[in-house]
Recover the amino acids of this structure.
């Protein structure tokens, strides 16, 4: 019932760092397209030139840990909606210029 495809090419960010996960993003090029169904569809990515504002909601997707006290990384792709906060409000450790403070 599920669909699978062969990854033809994997392109990681040129400044990716495995030690601290900086720029942990990649593009997977598939050998063939997925068949669109009621549960499989296209994802539209926007071109944004600025960071979201404090208080704005943002969608996050990834395989990371699900709490600040957890050390177990999820093996399921997760999605959530977060609210952007001031970097001085509750972030610890202090985020870099490539990270957002959320809560």
């Amino acid at each position: 019932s599920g669909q699978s495809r062969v990854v033809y090419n994997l392109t990681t960010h040129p400044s990716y760092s495995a030690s601290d996960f900086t720029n942990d993003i990649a593009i997977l090029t598939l050998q063939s397209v997925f068949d669109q169904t009621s549960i499989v569809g296209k994802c539209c990515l926007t071109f944004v030139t600025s960071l979201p504002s404090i208080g704005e909601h943002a969608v996050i997707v990834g395989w990371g840990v699900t709490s600040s006290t957890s050390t177990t990384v999820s093996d399921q792709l997760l999605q959530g909606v977060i609210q952007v906060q001031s970097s001085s409000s509750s972030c610890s450790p202090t985020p870099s210029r490539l990270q957002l403070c959320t809560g």
